[in-house]
């Protein structure tokens, strides 16, 4: 099993200076490993910090202490100390992130939004657009919507655009935050297939799934964040 | 040619003092081609002072600004002769002012405004200059019929877009923007921001943008520096600084955005 | 109009030679030397109060006063003519204060002071042409800041000059500037040739005579030493062109000189006459005749006067 990511002794707390500098601890002492071909479900009760942990893996949130290392370009990159430039490069080429919400940039057509990560990697425009069309078709986004901005799409449609954008490039590591939320049965099945394809090509995946069916279908293991909650092991 | 791992701009310990008063202090960072750095803070934070010093408009009290020129390698901007500095500002660099009138010649046509930088570096073919200017009007979404009109007949948003065209026509590699959407209506802002986002991406521009509007910073910049009273109190990836602010002041700024 | 050289009856002893004191003349000469050393560069000078208001040639008069000597012969023209009020006044001024000989013949003058024209007759190495200049700065109308225009000249930043020409073409389809047409001097400085018609610009290029320019109100002097390269600014696809007329001079028949349009009567009849009066009369003396010359029989004029192109 080739290791792609590991978190070592990671702790997280939020210090809210605007509210009298109260510190809200989330977890501590977290040890986590992700290997190629795996799909690990992050589990735990609501508020245990699953989303927080996932964002820390993406360097969207900082670590209060500890380190998170990612295999990028054949080298280990500690994202808790890396330069912004290095992290941006890691996000571009190594780690994909499908968030719960699509951050919509007005006036950009759906097809462009989906193709963009692939074009950024240097793929020829036409090739990228062709792949974007494939994915949008698989996710049942009608062709008449491809030239429109997703601004006016329904929640489910926006989520599917998000997924298409997240799966268009072959990232070695993928983070999925509730990828099947607001999707119907058919589209959930498509997302399942996409995850299976990613696993098959050796991607290391971590995901948060509220939908137990999907979780049980694709995940090779689980990781309970609750067990690291501050005070949990007292 | 700058390789992508070499910085295009390096600012070291930049300090601007006005007597005892701190304009900005000990600012250091590097910028790579294609990177957008946002400098945010409230008025009086020193962000505009910092921008002017970096953009070679005001020599700092201390510190250096080094730029990787196209042919001479890395040069200290304030060690250059004034002629070289002015040439740099006309070709490789661009400055988009908050008030479009500061960055335009109001008494010559839109076409002449865009063509000026070309003529300044020796273009002598009227037809070519004109068609290049027309091309750029299209890129900034101004109707090309307005090519011969005076900027004073343009709306605020159009004037700002004309200023952008005027600056970008010589394909600069580094663009400074001082509150480029300030003073514009919200819908006009959105259009302008989107245009900027597209141009930055298509032309692989390195940008330093000063703004007090965090939404603008989030949309356009990769990295963020937060300033308060002349000091950089927090810096890092834009999404990290805005989603997980560490410093008390940053938290205050972020929480002050009205949520819709 | 038939006189050649005028020797004035007496000089006024109340004035120093040529009106200005010697220190002032030295100051102006130093400025002139600098100007000649840097062709086209505007040299500031401490212009004096002159007995005529600004706008009436004080700059030209000060330059002439600094270079004129008792053996010189002075010609003064205004729009090419020796007999306009201005030209007559200035000629008399020097006759009175310098006791110099004056003339209306270009060939006989050693110093020619001019407003808004260059004589048609080619000038020689032993002659000096002094121009009266209102606004010496060619960039002024586009860039009102003196600090900026000085920098632009120092750093050879002349893109703005072409902006002006671009604007002309975009508005009128061609470069509409017809006088004070900017030139590039010695491949270095952009210069305002004074409000002479662009027709005269080619004469400045490699002229054998020394050309001096004086702006009294703006207090600037500039110069073109003999045989200096002077090139009018233009675009590759809109090259510089001089004016031309379909008509010839009504008096002397010249087709190669700058023509003034003269309205003859209330019915709109007009004729074209050489602006340079000396040139015209010289040609007439040599026997040339134009269609409106009183020697010509009536009916030979076939034109109603077409406008200059």
Round the Cα radius of gyration of chain C to an integer and report it: 20 Å
Shape of chain B: globular
> Which geometry of chain C do the CA atoms define?
globular
SS field, number of helical segments of chain B: 9
Radius of gyration of chain B: 18 Å
Order of helices and strands of chain B: EEEHEEHEHHHEHEHEEHH
* Helix percent band of chain C: 10-25%
How many beta strands in the DSSP annotation of chain B? 10
Beta-strand content bin of chain C: 15-25%
The biggest sheet of chain C, with number of strands, parallel, antiparallel or mixed sense and barrel status, is: 8 strands, mixed
Describe this structure in words.
The complex is a heterotrimer of chains A (234), B (260) and C (309). By secondary structure, chain A is of the alpha/beta class. Chain A contains 7 helices and 9 strands, in the order E-E-E-H-E-E-H-E-H-H-H-E-H-E-H-E. In chain A, a hairpin with a 2-residue loop joins strand 4 and strand 5. The termini of chain B are far apart. Chain C has 309 residues and is α/β, with parallel strands linked by helices. In chain C, helix 1 packs across helix 2. The two termini of chain C are 30 Å apart. Chains B and C meet through helix 2, helix 3 and helix 4 of B and helix 5 of C.
List the helices and strands and how they pair.
The complex is a heterotrimer of chains A (about 230), B (about 260) and C (about 300).
Chain A: E1 3-16, E2 22-35, E3 39-43, H1 50-57, E4 65-72, E5 75-78, H2 84-93, E6 95-98, H3 110-120, H4 125-138, H5 155-167, E7 173-177, H6 185-200, E8 204-208, H7 212-218, E9 221-224
Parallel strand pairs in A: 3-8, 3-9, 6-7, 7-8
Antiparallel strand pairs in A: 1-2, 1-4, 4-5
Chain B: E1 9-18, E2 21-31, E3 36-40, H1 47-54, E4 62-69, E5 73-76, H2 82-90, E6 93-96, H3 110-120, H4 126-139, H5 156-168, E7 174-178, H6 186-203, E8 206-211, H7 214-220, E9 223-228, E10 231-237, H8 238-243, H9 248-255
Parallel strand pairs in B: 3-8, 3-9, 6-7, 7-8
Antiparallel strand pairs in B: 1-2, 1-4, 4-5, 9-10
Chain C: E1 5-6, H1 22-37, E2 43-44, H2 58-67, E3 73-78, H3 85-98, E4 101-103, E5 111-115, E6 128-132, H4 146-154, H5 159-172, E7 183-185, E8 189-191, H6 201-204, E9 210-215, E10 220-224, E11 230-232, E12 259-263, E13 270-274, H7 277-285
Parallel strand pairs in C: 3-4, 3-5, 5-6, 6-9
Antiparallel strand pairs in C: 1-4, 2-10, 7-8, 7-11, 9-10, 12-13
Helix pairs in contact in C: 1-2
């Amino acid at each position: 099993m080739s290791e792609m990511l590991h978190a070592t002794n990671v702790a997280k707390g939020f210090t809210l200076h605007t509210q009298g500098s109260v510190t809200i601890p989330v977890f501590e002492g977290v040890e986590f490993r992700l290997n190629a071909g795996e799909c690990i479900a992050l589990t735990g009760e609501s508020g245990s910090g699953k989303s927080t942990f996932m964002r820390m893996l993406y360097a969207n949130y900082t670590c209060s202490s500890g380190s998170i290392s990612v295999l990028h370009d054949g080298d280990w990159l500690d994202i808790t100390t890396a330069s912004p430039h290095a992290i941006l490069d890691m996000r571009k080429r190594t780690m994909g992130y499908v968030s719960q919400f699509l951050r919509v940039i007005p006036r950009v057509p759906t097809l462009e939004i989906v193709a963009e990560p692939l074009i950024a990697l240097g793929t020829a425009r036409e090739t990228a657009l062709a792949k974007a069309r494939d994915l949008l078709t698989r996710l049942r986004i009608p062709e008449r919507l491809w030239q429109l901005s997703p601004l006016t799409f329904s929640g489910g449609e926006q989520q599917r655009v998000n997924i298409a954008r997240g799966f268009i490039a072959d990232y070695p590591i993928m983070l999925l935050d509730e990828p099947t939320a607001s999707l119907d049965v058919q589209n959930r099945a498509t997302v399942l297939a996409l995850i299976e394809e990613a696993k098959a090509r050796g991607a290391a995946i971590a995901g948060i799934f509220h939908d137990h069916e999907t979780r049980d279908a694709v995940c090779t293991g689980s990781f309970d964040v609750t067990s690291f909650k501050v005070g949990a092991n007292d | 040619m700058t390789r992508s791992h070499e910085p295009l701009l390096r600012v070291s310990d930049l300090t601007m003092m006005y007597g005892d008063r701190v304009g900005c202090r000990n600012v250091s960072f590097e910028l790579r081609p294609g990177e957008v750095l946002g400098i945010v803070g409230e008025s009086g934070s020193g962000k505009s002072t910092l921008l002017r010093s970096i953009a070679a408009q005001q020599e700092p009290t201390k510190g250096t600004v080094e730029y990787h020129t196209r042919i001479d390698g890395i040069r200290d901007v304030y060690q250059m002769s004034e002629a070289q500095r002015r040439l740099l500002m006309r070709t490789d660099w661009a400055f988009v002012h908050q008030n479009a009138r500061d960055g335009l010649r109001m008494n010559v046509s839109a076409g002449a405004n865009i063509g000026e930088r070309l003529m300044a570096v020796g273009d002598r073919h009227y037809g070519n200059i004109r068609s290049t200017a027309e091309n750029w009007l299209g890129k900034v979404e101004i109707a090309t019929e307005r090519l011969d009109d005076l900027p004073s007949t343009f709306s605020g948003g159009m004037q700002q877009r004309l200023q952008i065209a005027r600056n970008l026509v010589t394909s600069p590699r580094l663009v400074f923007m001082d509150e480029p959407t300030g003073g514009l209506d919200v819908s006009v802002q959105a259009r302008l921001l989107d245009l900027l986002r597209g141009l930055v991406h298509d032309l692989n521009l390195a940008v330093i943008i000063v703004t007090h509007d965090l939404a603008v910073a989030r949309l356009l910049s990769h990295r963020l520096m937060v300033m308060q009273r002349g000091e950089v109190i927090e810096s890092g990836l834009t999404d990290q600084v805005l989603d997980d602010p560490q410093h008390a002041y940053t938290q205050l700024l972020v929480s002050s955005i009205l949520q819709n | 109009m038939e006189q050649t050289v005028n020797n004035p009856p007496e000089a006024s002893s109340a004035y120093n030679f040529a009106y200005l004191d010697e220190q002032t003349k030295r100051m102006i000469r130093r400025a002139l030397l600098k100007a000649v050393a840097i062709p086209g560069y505007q040299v500031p000078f401490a212009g004096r109060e002159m007995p005529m208001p600004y706008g009436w040639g004080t700059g030209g008069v000060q330059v002439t006063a600094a270079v004129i000597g008792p053996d010189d012969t002075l010609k003064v023209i205004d729009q090419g003519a020796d007999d306009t009020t201005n030209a007559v006044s200035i000629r008399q001024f020097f006759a009175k204060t310098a006791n110099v000989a004056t003339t209306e013949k270009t060939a006989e003058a050693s110093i020619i002071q001019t407003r808004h024209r260059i004589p048609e007759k080619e000038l020689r190495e032993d002659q000096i042409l002094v121009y009266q200049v209102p606004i010496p700065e060619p960039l002024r109308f586009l860039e009102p800041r003196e600090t900026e225009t000085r920098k632009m000249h120092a750093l050879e930043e002349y893109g703005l000059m072409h902006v002006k020409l671009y604007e002309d073409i975009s508005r009128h389809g061609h470069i509409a500037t017809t006088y004070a047409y900017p030139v590039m001097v010695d491949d270095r400085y952009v210069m305002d040739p004074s409000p002479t018609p662009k027709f005269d610009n080619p004469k400045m290029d490699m002229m054998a005579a020394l050309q001096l320019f004086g702006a009294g109100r703006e207090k600037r002097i500039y110069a073109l030493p003999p045989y200096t390269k002077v090139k009018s600014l233009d675009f590759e696809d809109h090259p510089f062109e001089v004016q031309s007329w379909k008509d010839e001079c009504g008096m002397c028949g010249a087709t190669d000189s700058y023509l003034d349009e003269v309205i003859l009567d209330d019915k709109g009849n007009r004729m074209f006459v050489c602006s340079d009066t000396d040139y015209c009369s010289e040609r007439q003396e040599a026997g040339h005749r134009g269609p409106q010359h009183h020697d010509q029989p009536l009916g030979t004029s076939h034109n109603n006067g077409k406008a200059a192109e």
